[in-house]
Amino acid sequence: MDTHIAPVTLEKAYRLINHGPTVLVSATHQGVDNVMAAAWCCALDFAPPKLTVVIDKATRTRELVEKSASFVIQVPTVAQLQLTHDVGTSSLLQEADKLERAGVELFHIDGYDAPFVAGCSAWLACRLIPEPHNQTTYDLFIGEVTGAWSDTRVFKDGHWHFEDASPELGSLHYIAGGHFYAIGAALEADTDK
Amino acid sequence: MDTHIAPVTLEKAYRLINHGPTVLVSATHQGVDNVMAAAWCCALDFAPPKLTVVIDKATRTRELVEKSASFVIQVPTVAQLQLTHDVGTSSLLQEADKLERAGVELFHIDGYDAPFVAGCSAWLACRLIPEPHNQTTYDLFIGEVTGAWSDTRVFKDGHWHFEDASPELGSLHYIAGGHFYAIGAALEADTDK
């Protein structure tokens, strides 16, 4: 595991995705690993931390999530722009070497089944909370976050530090086609008002 | 209505929130208007466009949404940083003049019940799709988008143009406390790869 990676307390885990980044979803089942991009992932609760993610019926990842009941949500970086686009547009169902072609490197953390994507800025290991109606009707999956980690060069002590980190560590915010935006400037509202 | 506001086709409406901005939720019932901030709002489907938004039981807005079955999701701008923070931290239950104090100006669009917040960059009028289990268990509300509009100075012809617009029109991405980030630089992945 990269020396920059450190655990994030579960009570601060929601902050890893609170700013609405496009994420990568990874899962494994019976020896098959997969990773897809998802722009539609969102925090759902603070304690225990939960999140939602929309996973289309056409994806191979969906079957892995449903069968293993676990997945990892990770926050890719500006340096992973092309990787994020590529795992979001190709499918393991058509391309058996999808992950290799996209340059995805996986690693594992003891105690967690699903694989983690190297080079991201944050990782949230999730246990699927089965909600068949949501899954069938809306492709909506709910996960409880059971472990969280960050690259301490950009998220440390419960806070993102995009403004002090390399721009390559910024988060990606997908629109459509090949169009993304990076996260931008830090702004502070007056909290004493 | 501001002369910069123009309708967005429903098939492109998801793009207004695809990059994960913090939004404002507005609703009205029996003469009571309210507006709250929500970082946990996410696209759910393309056609018809749907979205999810988490609305805590402690908010006054929740009751207005439940009773009127309609609400507006709007994308506030960097110029509305303090307004967004203020409507997210004060409650109409404690402060009857909440909206006035936060500087919220409302306007209406014919055919839609819920009020719209002036000065935002995008608006999505939604009809509540009742899902009592999600609402009760997760504070999770699903809306079908029935109308969408944008400020054409920053979203036009189905695309955001943050890179060419005034930085004051950028979207806000909330973390915690008074900390936000603005949307940043445009990035293009290679789509021919």
Principal-axis shape of chain A: globular
Determine Rg of chain A (CA atoms, Å). Answer: 16 Å
CATH class of chain A: Mainly Beta
Low-pLDDT segments of chain A: none
Class computed from helices, strands and strand pairing of chain A = alpha+beta
Mean pLDDT rating of chain A: 96
Number of helical segments of chain A? 4
- What is the H-and-E element order of chain A? EEEEEHEHHEEEHEEEEE
What's the number of structural domains of chain A? Answer: 1
CATH superfamily of chain A: Electron Transport, Fmn-binding Protein, Chain A
At CATH level 3, the topology of chain A is Pnp Oxidase, Chain A
Helix content of chain A: 10-25%
Task: List the chains of the largest interface with their residue counts.
Answer: A-B, 55 and 55 residues
Largest sheet of chain A: 8 strands, antiparallel
- The overall strand count of chain A is 14
Strand content of chain A: 35-45%
So what's the oligomer here?
Answer: homodimer
Span between termini of chain A: 44 Å
State the CATH architecture of chain A: Roll
